[in-house]
Specification:
Layout (H helix, E strand, L loop, with lengths): L1 E3 L6 E3 L14 E4 L9 E5 L6 E5 L12 E5 L2 E9 L7 E8 L6 E5 L4 E3 L10 E8 L5 E6 L11 E6 L2 E6 L11 E8 L2
Parallel strand pairs: 7-15
Antiparallel strand pairs: 1-2, 3-5, 4-9, 5-6, 7-12, 8-11, 8-13, 9-10, 13-14
């Protein structure tokens, strides 16, 4: 199937005809497309690609041909805004490092069961780093996607900024249990 259009006008068109019988069936969907799909499983990586998957609300058959699928986002997003407080320097930011405490670097997702797991040894990715050339005066927002571990352990959120040849480190007072499909927004005001 290929998606055409956006929002409520989006339609999925099959590459070849789908033959439906009287037998009820489920339709599974995932994004982005990968040929690495076996036994309802796909591989997820901790990159900036929005992984989604879902299953039809209702069984489909010859009489019920409309497949309504709700797609679940498997990653969470952090949005960090940096603001100038009492800091009097130029505010030239050259590097930003972000850490949600822990996230998986690679995992398997079972679309049928809505579960994710690490196949073999757990592989963690605890920080993403960006070399940038941005100004603090622009109040930049850095948006990053993460692949959450399925844990009930809470973690603080860390941000490390290199600006005007100074290193600034922030850690949130609050700790978070990261949940897929959520957007977490943080504002860090730089004083000094």
């Amino acid at each position: 199937f290929t998606a055409y259009g956006t929002g409520s006008a989006q339609k999925w068109i099959p590459e070849r005809p789908v033959i439906l019988s009287e037998t009820n069936a489920d339709l599974y969907a995932y994004y982005p497309y990968t040929e690495d799909y076996h036994n309802h499983e796909i591989t997820l990586t901790n990159d900036e690609t929005d992984n989604m998957y879902g299953i039809t609300y209702d069984k489909i058959n010859r009489d019920n041909k409309n497949a309504r699928v709700f797609m679940y986002h498997r990653k969470f997003i952090t949005k960090i805004q940096l603001k100038r407080g009492t800091y009097e320097g130029e505010g030239n930011i050259t590097r930003i490092q972000i850490s949600p405490g822990v996230s998986w670097s690679i995992a398997k997702a079972n679309i049928k069961k809505y579960t994710s797991y690490v196949n073999g040894t757990q592989k963690y990715s605890d920080m993403k780093a960006y070399d940038v050339e941005i100004s603090l005066d622009d109040s930049p927002v850095i948006e990053t996607m993460w692949l959450p571990t399925l844990t009930s352990h809470a973690y603080p959120f860390d941000v490390y900024v290199v600006m005007d040849d100074l290193s600034v480190y922030y850690r949130t007072d609050e700790e978070y249990i990261w949940t897929d499909g959520q957007i977490y927004e943080f504002t860090f005001t730089i004083n000094r």
